[in-house]
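Budget justification aside, the reviewers requested a transparent look at the raw inputs and outputs of the sequence design task funded under Objective 1. We therefore reproduce one unedited record. The lines immediately below are the structure tokens for a 108-residue chain.
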């Protein structure tokens, strides 16, 4: 998960009228391990959709050449493989996850 508390949002402000001593001593919950700013997070979602258009344009040709059954089977296997490897790639490197998200977009 992304650590969203590591970066200040543009809409954040300090409320001086509230006493800081009133905070509870309970657990603050899971804070995430990935230090990705909002721009990086947006590119991860965008990478999926950028690759959809070229795939749509070429999928008709591929379906005519190899048959729709094989094109759908390849897309399904690519989607499953990319989805399974995504957590490990996220731990490894941001660029690897970006490539993986692009492959997911191709499989859609």
């Amino acid at each position: 998960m992304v650590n969203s508390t590591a970066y200040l949002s543009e809409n954040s402000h300090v409320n001086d009228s509230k006493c800081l001593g009133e905070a509870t001593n309970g657990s603050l919950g899971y804070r995430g391990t990935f230090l990705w700013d909002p721009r990086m997070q947006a590119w991860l979602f965008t990478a999926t959709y950028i690759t959809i258009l070229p795939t749509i344009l070429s999928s008709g040709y591929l379906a005519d050449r190899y048959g729709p059954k094989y094109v759908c089977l390849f897309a399904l296997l690519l989607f499953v493989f990319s989805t399974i490897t995504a957590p490990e790639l996220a731990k490894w490197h941001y660029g690897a996850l970006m490539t993986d998200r692009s492959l997911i977009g191709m499989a859609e």
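The chain has a mean pLDDT of 84. The chain has four helices and no strands. Computational costs for records of this kind are itemized in the attached budget.
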